[in-house]
Write a structure and sequence with these properties.
By secondary structure, the chain is an alpha/beta fold. It has 3 domains: 5-57, Electron transport complex subunit B, putative Fe-S cluster (3-methyladenine DNA Glycosylase II, Chain A, domain 3, Orthogonal Bundle); 64-314, TIM Barrel (Alpha-Beta Barrel), CATH 3.20.20; 327-446, Rossmann fold (3-Layer(aba) Sandwich). It has helices at residues 5-11, 25-33, 47-57, 104-116, 140-153, 165-175, 190-200, 212-224, 239-254, 276-288, 301-314, 347-360, 376-381, 387-396, 418-424, 440-446, and strands at residues 64-67, 72-75, 93-99, 119-121, 124-126, 130-134, 158-161, 181-185, 203-207, 230-233, 266-267, 293-296, 327-331, 340-344, 364-369, 407-410, 429-432. Helix 1 crosses helix 2, helix 5 runs parallel beside helix 6 and helix 6 runs parallel beside helix 7 (190-200).
Length: 449
C-alpha cells in the first residue's frame, strides 16, 4: 500500500531546507504521496528512508525506453487517468509489423517505405517510431536474418516477436544492441525469455490471455529473474476486451498502486480485426485509451497520418496550447514593398496561414504576435489579440525597418479592431484580410496593392 503524506513526512529529515523546491518537508511529503514530486529532490534523505519511501516515490507505471540515442521511444510513467487532470507525458510508440519470411529484397523495400514516411503537423515531424519483426517462419536463422535486414535499413527501435526463446536469442544477436522489446513471454517460456532479455539488456513483453492475475504473476516472475523493463499484453483482441482490460490495468496501477501491473501496455490492433478499417479503429482506441506500444500489421500513409495526428492531439498539454515564437517571418523572399500580414502565435493558426502564404508563391511578411497560444477569435475574446498588442509587436520587432510602406493586413475575423489599430499606429493603413486562411492567396493576388 502507498504511504500517506504524514507517513512519508516521518521518514524525511525535517530540516525545512527548501532545497527540494518546496517550503517545508511536510509540503514535499504531500507531493510525494500525490506522485507529483521525485524523492531525489531531497539531498538529505537517508538510505533507509529511501528504501522505505520507494513505493511512495516511484512512478505508478514504470518508464520503459526502447532504442538508442538517434531514435528513442519512451512509454509509461503516466500519473493520471484523464489528460485534463494533468497531462499525458509519454505518447505511445507506433510500430509496423513485418514477417520474417519475406524475400530479403521485398522486406528491405517494405521497411524502406515505412521509415521513409514523414509528415509535418504544426511544426512537428510525424513518423513511424519503429519496426516489429514477427517470426512467422518458425526458424531462428530466418528470423535472425530478417532482423539483420531491418537493422541495416534503420536505427529506429525494434520489437522482436516470437514465442521461441532460441529465435529471440538469434534475433538479438543481429539487432545491434539498441534496447529492443522482445517477447512474448508466456507461462510456458518466461524463464528462457527473461534470460535472453537480461543478457541483451532488452525490455520484455509479457502476455496472458485475459487473466490479469496470471499476468501479474508472470510479470513478477520476470522481474524476479532480473528484467524490470516490462511491457504488458493482457491478450484481448477485441475492441471491448482491449478497452476493458486496458482501463482495469490503468486503474489498478494508478488508483490501487498495484506494482505487479504497473507497466506500459502493448496493443496489437491487427489481430482480431476483420478489415484494415477495423484495425485502424482499434489502433485509434489504443492510442486514446492507455496503449504504450501500438503494433500495426498494415502500413498506409493516410491512416498513419490520422493516427499520428490523433496521438499528437491527445499527448499535448491541454492547459498549454502549442504555440510558435512571436516575431516576423519571411515567405518567398519578401522585399520592402511586400505585404505585411498579422496573426496570433497559436501553432495551428500559424501553420495554416504560413502554408497558404507560401503556397501562393508571392513574397510576404508575417507578423506573429504573442497571444499566449490562442487562435484569432479566442485571443480577441480574451483580450490577448487587440490593437495595443499588435502595435506593440510592430514596434518590438522593428517592422518599419523591414518595409517601405505602412500597410498592415489583419484577419477578417477581427475587423472590428481596425479603427483602434489605426489609432495605435498613426499614419498606417489598416486593411482587413480574409476570414479564412485558404483565401489568402487570392487576396494577395487580387486585392493587395
Amino acid at each position: 500500500m502507498p504511504l500517506s503524506g504524514l507517513e512519508i513526512y516521518k521518514l524525511l529529515p525535517k530540516t525545512n531546507c527548501k532545497e527540494c523546491g518546496f517550503p517545508t518537508c511536510l509540503a514535499f511529503a504531500m507531493k510525494l504521496a500525490a506522485k507529483q514530486a521525485d524523492l531525489s529532490a531531497c539531498p538529505y534523505v537517508s538510505e533507509e528512508a529511501k528504501q522505505a519511501l520507494e513505493a511512495a516515490s516511484a512512478p505508478p507505471i514504470r518508464l520503459v525506453t526502447l532504442g538508442g540515442a538517434d531514435h528513442k521511444v519512451e512509454v509509461g510513467n503516466e500519473t493520471v487517468l484523464f489528460r485534463h487532470e494533468k497531462t499525458f507525458f509519454h505518447q505511445p510508440g507506433v510500430f509496423v509489423r513485418v514477417p520474417d519470411n519475406l524475400p530479403a529484397a521485398e522486406l528491405e523495400a517494405k521497411v524502406g517505405e515505412i521509415v521513409a514516411f514523414k509528415t509535418e503537423r504544426v511544426g512537428m515531424d510525424l513518423f513511424v517510431d519503429g519496426i516489429a519483426v514477427q517470426n512467422v517462419s518458425g526458424n531462428a536463422d530466418t528470423f535472425a536474418q530478417a532482423v539483420a535486414t531491418v537493422r541495416a535499413k534503420t536505427k529506429r527501435p525494434m520489437i522482436l516477436l516470437s514465442e521461441n526463446p532460441a529465435a529471440i536469442a538469434a534475433g538479438l544477436a543481429k539487432e545491434g544492441g539498441l534496447a529492443p522489446l522482445v517477447g512474448p513471454a508466456t507461462a510456458q517460456n518466461w524463464q528462457e525469455m527473461a534470460k535472453a532479455a537480461k543478457a541483451a539488456n532488452a525490455s520484455i513483453l509479457v502476455r496472458a490471455d485475459g487473466d490479469l492475475s496470471a499476468l501479474a504473476e508472470l510479470a513478477e516472475n520476470v522481474k524476479a529473474a532480473g528484467v524490470e523493463s516490462i511491457v504488458l499484453d493482457p491478450g484481448a483482441r477485441t475492441l471491448y476486451g482491449n478497452l476493458a482490460l486496458f482501463t482495469q490495468l490503468r486503474r489498478l496501477a494508478l488508483k490501487k498502486n498495484f506494482r505487479p501491473l504497473g507497466y506500459p501496455l502493448a496493443a496489437f490492433p491487427g489481430e482480431g480485426a476483420g478489415s484494415f478499417e477495423e484495425e485502424v479503429v482499434a489502433a485509434a482506441q489504443a492510442v486514446a485509451k492507455y496503449g504504450g506500444i501500438v503494433v500495426l500489421d498494415h502500413f498506409d500513409p493516410a491512416a498513419m497520418y490520422i493516427l499520428l495526428t490523433l496521438r499528437l492531439n491527445i499527448y499535448t498539454d491541454p492547459q498549454k496550447p502549442i504555440q510558435v515564437s512571436p516575431g516576423v517571418y519571411e515567405f518567398n523572399a519578401p522585399k520592402p514593398e511586400s505585404p505585411l500580414l498579422v496573426t496570433t502565435n497559436f501553432s495551428l493558426t500559424y501553420f495554416s496561414v504560413a502554408g497558404e502564404v507560401e503556397a501562393s508563391g508571392l513574397p510576404a511578411w508575417l507578423l506573429i504576435t504573442d497571444a499566449e497560444g490562442m487562435s484569432v477569435l479566442t485571443a480577441w475574446a480574451a483580450g490577448k489579440f487587440d490593437a495595443e498588442r499588435i502595435a506593440k509587436a510592430v514596434k518590438a520587432f522593428n517592422v518599419p525597418d523591414r518595409i517601405n510602406h505602412k500597410k498592415i493586413v489583419i484577419p477578417g475575423l477581427v475587423a472590428t479592431i481596425s479603427g483602434e489599430l489605426e489609432e495605435e499606429l498613426p499614419g498606417w493603413d489598416v486593411r482587413v484580410g480574409p476570414r479564412e486562411a485558404v483565401d489568402i492567396p487570392s487576396y494577395l493576388k487580387n486585392v493587395w496593392k
